[in-house]
Amino acid sequence: MKCFNHIETDAVGICKHCSRALCKECCLDLGHGLSCKNHRDEVEAIKSLIDNNKLVYASQPKARLIVPFFSIFMGLVFAYFGYQRNQSLSLILGSGFTVFGIVIFVYHTINIKKMTTTYKD
Ligand SMILES: [Zn+2]
Ligand SMILES: [Zn+2]
After folding, report:
1. Ligand 2: distance of its center to the CA of 14 in Å?
2. Relative to the alpha carbon of 27, which ligand is closest?
3. Model confidence over 58-73: pLDDT tens digits?
4. Which of 49, 59, 92, 102 has its CA 20 to 30 A from that of 23?
């Protein structure tokens, strides 16, 4: 693979923004990846965007679990009383809440795993 700007020179990397091959002279090492001289800001912006996302996810893991746990708890209470008093509507609602809570919980868990594994450089 040859440099995009210097046809004679071997490329050492690829710009994260435009995916052009770059030689030592043309690429900028930003510490977390390479960019060409035109796309330093773009590549930095992507990096800080990802960092911000990671921060948001890392800073409030408990807050995001309140909704599913609350749903599951309410669902179980509903279902329990529905069952006790033989009210099928409460039982159905309760089951619905419980399933809803579990789905949200699983969804969040998968998302957290994605966030922490996908963006390792
Ligand atoms: Zn570029
Ligand atoms: Zn070059």
Report:
1. 11
2. 2
3. 766 666 778 888 889 9
4. 49
